[in-house]
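Service request form, structural biology core

Requester: graduate student, group of Dr. S.
Request type: structure prediction, single chain
Budget code: on file
Notes: please return the result as structure tokens.

Sequence provided:
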Amino acid sequence: MNILKFITAGSVDDGKSTLIGRLLYDSNAVSHDILETLERQSRNKADGELDLSLLTDGLRAEREQGITIDVAYKYFSTTRRKFIIADAPGHVQYTRNMVTGASNADLAIILVDARQGVVEQTHRHSLVASLMGIPQIVLAVNKLDLLDYSEEHFYKIAAAYQELAEKLKLRNITFIPISALAGDNVVQPSANMPWYLGPTLLEHLETVEIEPEAASDAPRFQVQYVIRPKSNEWHDYRGYAGSLRSGSFRRGDRVLVLPAGIETEIVAIEVNQVQVEEAFAPQPLVLHLAHDIDISRGDTIARFDAQPIVSRDLEATLCWMNERPLRPGDRLLLRQHAATVKAIVKSIEYRIDVHTFEHLSDDKLELNDIGLVRLKTAQPLVFDAYKQNRHSGGFILVNENTYDTVAAGMLEEATELEPG
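Core staff response, request fulfilled:
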């Protein structure tokens, strides 16, 4: 049974948490003890209905304010598929949390309040989905029960979003009219919208085809730990442990150890302490190489015929996540999985206007801004352009004094920068 990882996003009070609660409740994915707790916590509601948003809004501050602050993860399954859900916050100041949830998503459900239509956060979340390379988008037009299930309103919003999607080059979009509170078209078809002939939300989630990116991309393995027992029993053992981020390796493959650029051969592959002929992403494994090479944590092993980019001069799209603005000259730590290098901001090329998606000249990025920057690293970084391989093209920036994560980035092709 395959797994679909999806994220819900939208503006404040669009009903994201209620939608997930409805999915879990109507698909019988809520255990009896959680259901009893839900009933107890919902007693204060005037209408006596279950407050399904409580299934995801676990923080006390969220329950008091009626908003989602953190990214809440839920897991459920049907007879057709397993699901991992990330419920992202709606407030603009928590856009950074949406980036976190979107980084590994196969699909994004972007909610729109039928009464409000396409708003600023719809633009912002769609921009993030586009930049993060999420292959499938569902626009769920929610709260249609408050507009008498108006077909006209639904198609008007769908047309407005289609214009936005064309600007962002979003291709695979499915439009579904729903009421998360009433349950219309979430798990069960709605008798209130006979004009809609498409699938329910759950039917779409169960059947949507997702490309297994990690297996089809060029093979990328990053060393997390060098295993040298140095015992009498394992005197000559030398293995390189880590996760295969993308692609596959076979015993006998010619590979390069990067950034050093040393050529060697894979002589053995271990998965769960058993030698195998071939390994596939995202398996954790141990590689054994033909030559004793000076290899450290963060080094990359790539197949000789599918080499990544190796450069100190980088161009990247950033989502800035810190209250202190980013400016040219700032020094940060760049972390790409197990690799950590020092970096300096050489320039800010532009900031993206979330309303029009225009590129605006600016000398800084402020909290939740998205823009293109040029970086120079102290040591070479091994990567692919994010659009070609998001498993090796993503990174985070960390404040080198506080170790706070201050940005999420997507690498472009290497660029030529001025010396220094």
